[in-house]
Amino acid sequence: MNDFILIVEDEPKLAKLLTNYLLQAGFEAQCLENGLNVLPLVHERMPALILLDLMLPGRNGVDICKDIRAFSTVPIIMVTARVEEIDRLLGLELGADDYICKPFSPREVVARVKAVLRRTAGQEPLSTATPLLQLDEGRLLATIRGCQLELTVVEFKLLEFLSANPGRIFGRNQLMDHIYPDQRIVSDRTIDSHIKNLRKKIAGVSPDTDIIHSVYGVGYKYDVALADTKPSA
Ligand code: CA
Q1: Sign (positive/negative) of CA torsion 220, 216, 124, 89?
Q2: CA distance 27 to 30
Q3: Where are the beta strands (DSSP E) in 145-196?
Q4: Considering the entire predicted model, what is its pTM?
Q5: In the chain, what's the furthest Cα-to-Cα distance?
Q6: CA of 80 to the centre of ligand 1 (A)
Q7: How many whole angstroms separate alpha carbon 31 and alpha carbon 51?
Q8: Which fold has domain 133-226?
């Protein structure tokens, strides 16, 4: 049976567009526009994934997400109208699996849906005999597909932290708090340059392995699943 995707979206045009794209991609899809109808349907049909708009009539996306998390770990992608909203949502620690900002391309949404499904199914899309990433904390040693990376302590800590939370987006401030727990005053651009170096080093040993992703206006995440969902065009 096809994976059932529940779309919660009150803009009819957008809802129809998303439904059509997901159907074309081989999913089963249904759309609800009123927030009050979500929980009963989730209980009844147990979707494989929920695309959840934030602003809805009846009940808002934040409350719905909390409701669902009280009894289910079903993957949830939150859809927001403003990129600044994502920061606030991250702070609420709702347990959503990904965030998408409007306007988006339906194609991107389908790619994200697939990525989240793969990730939450615990499947390793880039499966090879050699593990993708191995970290030896004691020796600050990192290998990508068996190739050793020459990392600084900060780069190692960033990679370790991000990869321990696959798919989760971290703001620069959160990363800085982790890397510099002594509250040393550093510019948040410092994180950008460490990430840049880290990505360069990963690309240096394994050019096809794109695992550190920047999320525009928000921060960074580690995501193995996204590595092979890029459009080939
Ligand atoms: Ca809305």
Answers
A1: positive
A2: 10
A3: 147-149, 170-171
A4: 0.55
A5: 55
A6: 8
A7: 9
A8: Arc Repressor Mutant, subunit A (1.10.10)
